[in-house]
Specification:
By secondary structure, the protein is of the alpha/beta class. It has eight helices and 23 strands. The radius of gyration is 23 Å and the shape is globular. Bound molecules: flavin-adenine dinucleotide.
Length: 420
């Protein structure tokens, strides 16, 4: 492991997590004149937003918003991005922190042009985590079509390395380095913003809802990938069992959220996400019917218009009902959804072709101070701030506002930047 020691830089800021919140905090601080180190564990920036098909309420593709941020990063020499990297240790008082960062090898260097010649010769496959396992890639892979940086990486968990080595002669620019080593570096910063985001709640833990047992039960994050042009079906929403477009789709709200046995809180975006996904279905399959079972529909503030517009579609039905069971019907791959109206106790049964579980957002596990639900606490005494879904469940607009506030607090803690 090589060591790289950066000299002390008063006023510099570390941002952990390169999702929309981390990107925003990093850009706000850098554009205010501070040196910023942005540490992201994936081999690309953008976080979960990069995996969405469209944003509610305007239904524009997230790639537009991300691209603007990437352009600002490319143009700002004060931001230093470390992908495939994680913080190992933070020592010292606020204003004078020493951070140890470990950068994992990518096995592909900056010469990569993303031509894909390596893919044609790679004999090993892996599940594509960007598509939530709905497709496969070769062991050498491009994280996704709009990845930043746009460069391949090798999954050494499955790649046999030099024992195979077929990719090496296929690469005309000598970009593949199967012997690349992890490296460790020390950074001097004045403050840290944690923007480590969220992960989807594990749907396999939702007993009775059929995930992992019935093929046509998927989660909301999978639906984003199914609808995305760069996704596993090139943007066609189809049933996993037979590849047919579904004529009837049921959305199960609060799949895990607002449940003491799973996530005790409201995940804040799932109702809007399902309403948005109802528009994906309706756009692609003109006669399709969509049925959403909810406990309460939560679309606060200015999102009310979006709710009203989607709910006005005669092919979209919204029913109050806590779904207790989803079972596969023999032969067709269809599903029987059984729910109970939470006010009247009435039992509702609906047959459908595809079930989407609106699983909630769980804060990414962290060693930093957090509350009983796992959300990070702002710890000003230690020089630590938190932003985005690491701090609370939030939409993109809320995460961006949060991050701007966290950047301001980090600037106050880090002190004035010194420029040579
Ligand atoms: C199904 C679904 C659909 C949604 N659709 C919309 C929508 O249409 N509009 C909208 O406004 N919101 C939507 N959201 C919410 C949106 O995804 C979040 O608001 C957004 O992702 C929050 O960004 P973030 O940066 O806080 O977290 P993330 O996007 O999770 O980014 C966090 C980043 O931190 C990195 N990271 C984590 N741990 C570490 C570590 N230890 N070290 C280094 N890096 C780390 C991660 O790899 C990731 O890149 C949706 C959510 C769901 C579940």
């Amino acid at each position: 492991m090589t060591q790289h020691n950066a000299g002390p830089v008063t006023g510099s800021i570390l941002v952990v997590g390169g999702g929309i919140a981390g990107l925003t905090a990093a850009l706000e601080a850098a554009e205010a004149g501070h040196e910023v180190h942005l540490v992201e564990k994936n081999h690309y920036l953008g976080g979960r937003v990069a995996q969405l098909h469209r944003y509610f309420p305007k239904l524009c593709p997230p790639s537009c918003g991300l691209e603007i941020n990437f352009k600002r990063i490319r143009q700002n020499p004060r931001i230093h991005c470390w992908t495939g990297a994680q913080v190992e240790k933070v020592d010292g008082p606020p204003g004078d922190l020493e951070v140890t960062v470990r950068v994992a090898p990518r096995y592909v260097n900056e010469r990569c042009t993303a031509c894909g010649d390596c893919v044609a010769v790679c004999p090993v496959e892996r599940a594509d985590d960007f598509n939530y396992g709905l497709s496969r890639t070769t062991a050498i892979y491009l994280p996704h079509a709009f990845a930043f940086p746009l460069r391949f990486a090798v999954d050494r968990g499955v790649c046999p390395g030099l024992e195979c080595g077929r990719c090496l002669p296929a690469c005309k620019v000598d970009a593949i380095e199967l012997g690349m080593q992890p490296r460790s570096m020390k950074l001097k910063v004045g403050a840290v913003v944690y923007a480590t985001g969220w992960q989807p709640y594990d749907a396999a833990r939702l007993e009775g809802l059929g995930f992992g047992q019935a093929k046509n039960v998927i989660t909301n994050v999978m639906m984003e990938r199914l609808a995305a042009p760069g996704g596993p079906t090139a943007g066609k929403i189809t049933r996993p069992s037979d590849g047919r477009p579904p004529q009837h789709v049921v959305f199960v709200q609060c799949a895990g959220s607002r449940d003491e046995n799973h996530l005790a809180y409201c995940s804040a975006v799932c109702c809007l996400a399902s309403l948005k996904q109802a528009t994906y279905v309706r756009e692609q399959v003109p006669d399709a019917r969509v049925h959403m079972f909810y406990i309460d529909v939560r679309t606060p503030g200015r999102y009310e218009d979006f709710y009203t517009k989607v709910a006005a579609d005669p092919n979209v039905t919204l029913s109050r009902g806590k779904v207790a069971r989803v079972s596969e019907l023999p032969g067709s791959g269809n599903l029987l959804v059984e729910a109970e109206n939470t006010l009247t106790g009435e039992l509702l049964r609906v047959e459908t072709e595809l079930v989407v579980l609106a699983t909630g957002m769980q804060p990414t596990a962290s060693a930093v101070a957090h509350d009983s639900l796992g959300f990070l606490r702002v710890d000003r005494a230690a020089g630590f701030g938190a932003a985005g879904c690491a701090r609370r469940p939030a939409d993109v607009a809320g995460s961006v506002q949060d991050a701007t506030g966290a950047a301001l607090r980090a600037i106050q803690t880090a002190g004035r930047p010194i420029h040579g």
